[in-house]
Amino acid sequence: MGPPLTIHRAGDAVWCTLDRPPLNLFEPTLIHAVRDAFVALAADRSTRVAVVTGSGRAFTAGMDVRVLRDLDPSRARELITTLHDAIAAVHRAPFPVIAAVNGPCLGAGFELALACDLRVAAAGASFGLPEVRVGVPSVIQAALLPPMVGPGRAAEMLLTGAAITAEQALDWGLVNRVVAADRLRAAAEELAAAILAGGPEAIRLQKELIVRWRDTDLATAVRYGIHAFATAYATDEPREGMTAYLEKRRPNFGG
Predict the structure, then answer these.
(1) Residues 6+ positions from 132 with CB-CB distance below 8 Å
(2) 131 is catalytic
(3) What contacts 194, CB < 8 A, 6 or more positions away?
(4) pTM of the full predicted structure?
(5) Cα–Cα distance measured from residue 145 to residue 238, given in angstroms and rounded to the nearest whole number
(6) What total of structural domains would you count in the chain?
(7) Does the annotation mark 208 as catalytic?
(8) CATH number of the domain that 150 lies in?
């Protein structure tokens, strides 16, 4: 088999494809590949946006149950900590991450999608946290779910393990767009292009704020924002962006 995660660079965007079809199940090799890839991308300032998707018919159907079945408490803690580290590397990447959800997005795969900043889904995709049906709770980035959809909807998904459709996910605010399957890549590329039109340093500052806002109280979040606003003026981006606006032209942030 080839690498479990394939990386393709398209200009300032990077496509990261989970490549263990048909279901792209998480197991230690894939978990480490995701973590290592995003640690490396975070250190490369030429990466301005990343897209995560799956090969075959699934985004990822979650953890391989064969890996989970015979764990003891110590090994269970080690595995879930390793998985957390991988998904946290996506969540805290210094650039925006788009999930292009091409099919079933379940369990740890759903947590990976929740860790991304934007989500676009194919019309036939589904989202769920079925862990309780195999005897374990949904954890780590599942904690992002209640603020996104409300405590009642989150509790129903977490306690029943039931999946929802892409259309329900759109209605609940879990995904930004739902498109026909053959339009998924184009939709992700459109979102990436819209991000790339912004100032590179401004986007990095905004991404940092988005992550920090999730972790802190309102007053602290406002202070972070004030600092980020002032920090932006240490670059040429505000002057170029506002001059371009006044001159009715596209900004040249690269210049």
Answers:
(1) 138, 158, 159, 160, 161
(2) yes
(3) none
(4) 0.95
(5) 35
(6) 2
(7) no
(8) 3.90.226.10
Show the domain range for 109: 5-196
27, 78, 131, 201: the active-site residue: 131
Of the residues 111, 167, 208, 247, only one is catalytic, namely 111
User: Could you tell me the end-to-end alpha-carbon distance of the chain, in angstroms, rounded to an integer?
Assistant: 43
Query: Of 71, 74, 54, 49, nearest to 189 (Cα)?
Result: 49
Supply the pLDDT for residue 1.
73
Amino acid letter at 71?
L
Confidence (pLDDT) at 28: 97
Non-local CB neighbours of 97 within 8 Å, separated by 6+ positions: 49, 50, 51, 52, 90, 115, 116, 117, 118
pLDDT at position 42 over 90: yes
- Do strands 5-10 and 118-122 pair parallel, antiparallel, or not at all (unpaired)? unpaired
Task: Specify the CATH number for the domain of residue 221.
Answer: 1.10.12
Q: Is residue 38 part of a domain?
A: yes
Side-chain-side CA neighbours of residue 246 (13 Å):
6
Q: Which tokens go with 60?
A: 């990822």
